[in-house]
Amino acid sequence: MSDPQLLLAARVQAALAAAFGPEYAGADPVIRPSQFADLQSNAALPLAKRLQAERGEKQNPRAVAQEIVDHLDVADLVANVEISGPGFINLTLDDAWIAAEAQRALADDRLGVPAAEHPQRVVVEYSSPNVAKEMHVGHLRTTIVGDAIARILAFLGHDVIRDNHLGDWGTPFGMLIEHLLDVGVEAAARDDSSVSDLTAFYQAARAKFDGDPAFADRARARVVSLQAGDAETLRYWQILVDVSKRYFNTVYRRLGVTLTDDDIKGESFYNDALAPTVRELEDKGIAVVSDGALCAFPPGFTGREGDPLPVIIRKSDGGYNYSTTDLATIRYRVDTERVDRMVYVVGSAQALHFQMVFAVARMAGWLGDDIRAEHAQIGNVLGTDGKILRTRAGGTVKLAELLDEAVQRAGAAYDETEHDPSFDAATRADIVEKVGIGAVKYADLSVARDSEYTFDFDRMISFKGNTGPYLQYAAVRIRSIFRRGGVDPDSATGPIAVGHPAERALALRLLGFGAALEQAGEKAEPHRLANYVFDLAQDYTAFFESCPVLKAPDDATRRSRLALCAATLRTLVTGLNLLGVPTPERM
Ligand code: ARG
Question: What CATH architecture does domain 4-93 belong to?
Answer without folding.
Answer: 2-Layer Sandwich (3.30)
